[in-house]
Design a protein that fits this description.
The complex is a heterodimer of chains A (114) and B (796). With 114 residues, chain A is α/β, with parallel strands linked by helices. In chain A, 33% of the residues lie in helices and 30% in strands. The model of chain A has no long low-confidence stretch (mean pLDDT 88). By secondary structure, chain B is of the alpha+beta class. Chain B has a six-stranded antiparallel sheet with strand order 7-6-11-10-9-8. The chains are: A alpha/beta (114), B alpha+beta (796).
């Protein structure tokens, strides 16, 4: 079983976006931590939310679900949403599940959307 | 200056042999002087009352040495005050006293007393004329007084002690009396010296008394208990706090007690419960020459069973001359409250650990009873309310095992019943804790059902009883009984707090354990309903499945699999993963299986079937129901087995050769239930003789701990390692491999579905006849906790 504190989240505000940098493992045990971080009020007002996955080593289907949930909420609130590429395992998961092309991806957290 | 006194042999008329003959008058004066000094010494030694002493000294001089004697003292404020006057004329003394009050001497003035006090040297005024008198008089009235009384001659000597001038002693002769000479001044000086010593002593004494009184006041009022003990162990001093602490009415009770009598009122033990003797007390060790550390002791009053925790610190009072320890000062700090809290917390921490260690609550409650004795009490029993309302004893403990038999006898013969008016039953019904601090013999007799019962109850020798409910959040599940009996310490209201907390903690644990067992049963039942009990046979092929739940045994998982025939000689293999666990996920797995079945029967293509399921999921109420599926259709042909693989977001199946070579098959597709449109690509392939197709959920590749997840290569390696004559055996090996990589604890459930075409297939003449080899039964010793299904054997 995963451990909740295997996920570390750092929040950074850049002009026009808020960046949540994830490190460690996003799985059944830690997905709720991400959900809580995304639910904070200050994030709702930002024009863009970036999930920076560069330091994320592992993601499972529950973790994926929380990322997809974040995408959905951003769509509802008319916020932009993007991720940065994660570890090979994360990338493989996104590819296998066929969501890679549905998640806007930027090369670095402060990069521009294509 | 010491006067030489010579022995006076015989009468005053006889010359002493050693000295030159002295005149009559001289001898007489000598005698007088000696007499005077001896008497003065006696007076000074006899009383510490300063005023009395001074008056007596003054009186001694009259009339032998003076007509008038005045002793003046220097005050702390620098003023000069008369303290004694004696006169031959009875009216003179009081008059002079009054004069001194009305016209006090000016310390800076020229009065002989003031001068002598300032200089510290004696003065002889052999003849005082009127003019001289007027020159140092304190005003005209004073001058008149002195002249009228015919002051003639004066000798004024300083009162000196330890280098300080305390005042002056004045002797005066009036009128016709012979004027003073040098010797008279010397005598006055001697007198003054003795008087000064007396004054000094009196002052010192008063100072000491003052200090003593202040010290007593301090000691009486500070909170710490302090005693002073001598070498024999006698308490020489004690303050009220000490009396209170040591159970005495007042300090006198302590100081008048014999050595050791006080200590014997208590059972004194150290923190580990070992009894301490007098010799181990810090004060005795101090006298034995050691420097003892502060000692933590537990005092239990024998008479009442009351318990106190004290820190005893001991310091020496050294004899200034011998440097040996004359007394020991004991300071007792009462830390009972702090210590009890500490002990209670440490007990609760251990109890919590015990309760969390196992779901078998009978076992944990027995451990709790063992833990509670003797830390909390001498006896501990735990009763639990059964489903049918009977009260069942699950634990009883006493530090002496032979006494446990007594409790068991009580339990056997006199089980409490839920409708009993008092005792455990009442606590369970009311949910309230009870404490009995005085075991009333009559109440006990009333509670007993018969004489034997009463005898057994008396035999427990209870001094106090506490019964607390096993309090789960919603109801009372039983009770914990604590009894103090043989030990000196008696249960009190102070113990109720810990007992109630224990009852609550244990109650919650019991309820959790019961729910847990309940939930496990439900989960198993659900699982049985949701996963196929048995797999259909596919001619010529071997099929096996394995489902291994991760740690939490009572959560229904989100993995599902299915095998169904959906046409003549067509089968469908499905494996999928509904993200999440619990009842909701279980519902989606049911939806998935049935939707795919229906779609298959309707004749849809693999991609079509997945599309139908996707639509069905999208129509669900929002809640992020998403699902990955791997779907394989099987069409055994005369010479081969045709398969179509369709993936919707699911890890690709492995095709494994008999020689262990593996590769992944299929093409990635979109997971279902999230994005529109989905993209599914069907891939056709064939299964050759001896080949295995392995479908699995992501619990398998992700079984490894951080960094050890199986990528395609390492998964292939694992599959290559696990060849086995039977498919079920291979799946078991895969499960073991996954467990190993996970260090024994899986991150997620693992489901596997595998299909193998037997090595030797007799293709036969008509193509449709295929020899069906017997499917071997699943191997014995399949991993515990997993569900293995093979085509013919079903194992749970």
């Amino acid at each position: 079983m995963g451990v909740p504190d295997q996920l570390r989240i750092e929040v950074r505000h850049d002009p026009g976006r808020v960046i949540l940098s994830l490190a460690g493992e996003l799985d059944m045990a830690s997905a709720e931590t991400l959900q809580r971080a995304l639910a904070t009020e200050e994030l709702q007002r930002e024009p863009m939310i970036v999930l920076d996955l560069q330091q994320l080593e592992f993601m499972d289907s529950t973790g994926l679900r929380s990322v997809l949930g974040a995408l959905e909420h951003c769509r509802e609130r008319r916020q932009e949403f993007a991720i940065t590429p994660g570890s090979p395992q994360v990338q493989r998961l996104l590819r296998v599940t066929g969501v890679a092309e549905h998640l806007p991806t930027i090369a670095t957290a402060d990069g521009a959307l294509a | 200056m010491a006067l030489q006194t010579s022995s006076l042999a015989g009468g005053p008329g006889e010359p002493s042999p050693k000295h030159r003959p002295v005149g009559r008058q001289e001898l007489s004066a000598h005698d007088t002087a000696v007499e005077l000094l001896v008497e003065a010494g006696a007076v000074v030694a006899s009383s510490l009352d300063l005023t009395t002493t001074m008056r007596q000294v003054a009186r001694l001089t009259v009339p032998r040495l003076a007509d008038l004697c005045v002793i003046d003292l220097l005050g702390e404020d620098g003023s000069i005050t008369e303290v004694a006057v004696a006169s031959a004329d009875p009216e003179l003394a009081p008059a002079l006293e009054e004069m001194r009050i009305r016209h006090p001497l000016n310390p800076e003035g020229e009065h002989p007393v003031a001068r002598v006090i300032r200089s510290g040297r004696p003065e002889l005024l052999a003849e005082m004329r009127e003019g001289l008198l007027r020159s140092f008089a304190q005003g005209s009235e004073h001058a008149r007084f002195m002249v009228e009384h015919r002051y003639r001659s004066a000798a004024v000597a300083p009162l000196l002690a330890r280098g300080r001038t305390l005042g002056a002693l004045s002797v005066l002769r009036l009128a016709e009396s012979a004027p003073y000479r040098r010797e008279d001044l010397e005598l006055a000086g001697e007198l003054a010296r003795r008087a000064a010593m007396a004054i000094d002593n009196a002052r010192l004494f008063a100072q000491v008394r003052g200090v003593e009184r202040r010290l007593e006041a301090v000691l009486a009022n500070i909170a710490e208990a302090i005693t002073l003990m001598d070498r024999d162990g006698r308490t020489v001093f004690a303050n009220q706090a000490a009396a209170d602490l040591l159970g005495a009415a007042n300090p006198r009770e302590l100081t008048s007690a014999n050595p050791g009598a006080i200590m014997s009122r208590f059972v004194v033990t150290d923190e580990q419960g070992r009894e301490l003797g007098r010799d181990q007390m810090p004060s005795r060790r101090l006298f034995a020459g050691e420097r003892p550390e502060p000692l933590l002791v537990r005092n239990v009053v024998r008479a009442t069973g009351e318990e106190r925790w004290l820190i005893v610190r001991c310091s020496p009072v050294l004899d200034p001359d011998t440097e040996e320890v004359a007394y020991a000062i004991n300071v007792y700090e009462n830390i009972t409250e702090v210590k009890r809290v500490q002990l209670a917390e440490s007990f609760m921490a251990e109890a919590t650990r015990v309760l969390a260690s196992s779901m078998d609550y009978t076992e944990t409650l027995q451990q709790i009873a063992r833990l509670a004795v003797p830390r909390l009490a001498d006896w501990c029993a735990v009763d639990v309310l059964g489903e049918t309302g009977e009260i069942e004893r699950v634990a009883v403990h006493h530090s002496d095992p032979s006494r446990i038999a007594l409790a068991e006898a009580l339990d056997r013969g006199y089980r409490p019943a839920l409708d009993d008016p008092a005792g455990v039953a009442e606590v369970i019904r009311s949910g309230k804790a009870r404490i009995f601090t005085d075991i009333d013999p009559d109440a006990l007799a009333a509670y007993a059902r018969d004489d034997t019962h009463l005898a057994l109850l008396r035999d427990i020798r209870a001094t106090a009883v506490i019964i607390v409910p096993l309090a789960a959040p919603t109801r009372t599940l039983g009770a914990i009984t604590l009894v103090s009996s043989d030990s000196s310490r008696r249960l009190t209201h102070a113990d109720l707090g810990v007992a109630v907390r224990l009852g609550r903690r244990a109650g919650t644990a019991v309820e959790s354990a019961r729910l847990y067992t309940e939930r496990t049963r439900i989960a198993r039942a659900l699982e049985a309903a949701l996963l196929p009990e048995s797999l259909p046979q596919i001619p010529g092929m071997e099929i096996a499945s394995l489902y291994r739940a991760a740690g939490e045994l009572n959560d229904v998982g989100g993995d599902f699999y299915d095998v169904m025939a959906y046409g003549p000689e067509r089968w469908l293999l499905v494996i999928g993963d509904v993200c999440g666990k619990g009842p909701r996920a279980a519902g989606v797995t049911a939806l998935a299986r049935h939707t795919l079945r229906a779609a298959a029967i309707l004749g849809q293509t693999p991609a079509g079937m997945l599309g139908t399921l996707h639509e069905a999921l999208r129509r669900q109420p929002p809640g992020a129901d998403l699902c990955t599926v791997c779907l394989v259709t099987i069409e055994p042909q005369p010479a081969r087995v045709r398969m179509t693989v369709a993936l919707a977001g699911h890890p690709p199946p492995m095709l494994i050769d008999p020689n262990g070579r593996c590769r992944q098959v299929g093409s990635p597709g979109t997971l279902l239930g999230v994005f529109d449109p989905i993209v599914i690509k069907e891939v056709d392939l064939e299964l050759g003789a001896g080949q295995t197709l392995l479908l699995y959920t992501d619990g398998l590749p992700e079984a490894g701990r951080a960094g050890l997840h199986l990528d395609e290569d390492s998964l292939s390696e694992l599959c290559a390692e696990v060849s086995h004559p039977t498919l079920a055996g291979m799946l078991s090996r895969l499960e073991q491999g996954a467990l190993r990589r996970a260090g024994g604890r899986l991150r997620d459930d693992i489901a596997m579905l595998a299909l193998r075409l037997a090595e030797h297939v007799d293709l036969g003449t008509r193509g449709s006849e295929v020899r069906r080899p017997k499917a071997a039964p699943a191997p014995a010793g399949a991993a515990a906790g997993s569900r293995n299904a093979a085509a013919t054997a079903v194992r749970r």
